[in-house]
Amino acid sequence: FFDEQGNRVRNGFFVFEDKYKGGDTIAHIDMDGNGKRDLLLAHGAKLTAWRDDGQLLLQVYPYTANYTGKLRIAVGDIHHNNTKEIFVAPSAGYPAPIKVYNADGSSIKNDWFPYGAQYKGGYNITIANFGADLGNNVVVGSGVGKEPMVDIYDYAFNRISGWRAFEPAFRGGI
Fold it and tell me: What is the mean pLDDT of the chain?
């Protein structure tokens, strides 16, 4: 950013106010496939992303503005279209689905319940590549109150593999 005389006044834009206390999920990753890193922030109930030039890319409340749990985020290209999909999962205590968005905030899949609509143990999610033949996949770890399962899903959200990570009696989450 420059003033009228061309002097640099700062080196970018600031997402946070001075009173910001931290504790949010932040990803600095190229979400739109232009080769430049964008900024994704999960703050409270809101998910916001800015393009590399500071322009707002998306702003959504996956579980309404009243949601008080933690937003768990995974970002990756599972559809092989050179843009990232954003996966948002609820924390324990909420019988809510995993939501999936395009980089512009449009919904790909509104309600995905890998463990059923009544499940409220929360999810841990990531995107991983298990080999060239599988491409990128969604990995879901069960939360509290369920067997300690790790499940792998393809681009169409079909379960392709899974395993128990710990003893069956363990219910502390993955």
Answer: 87
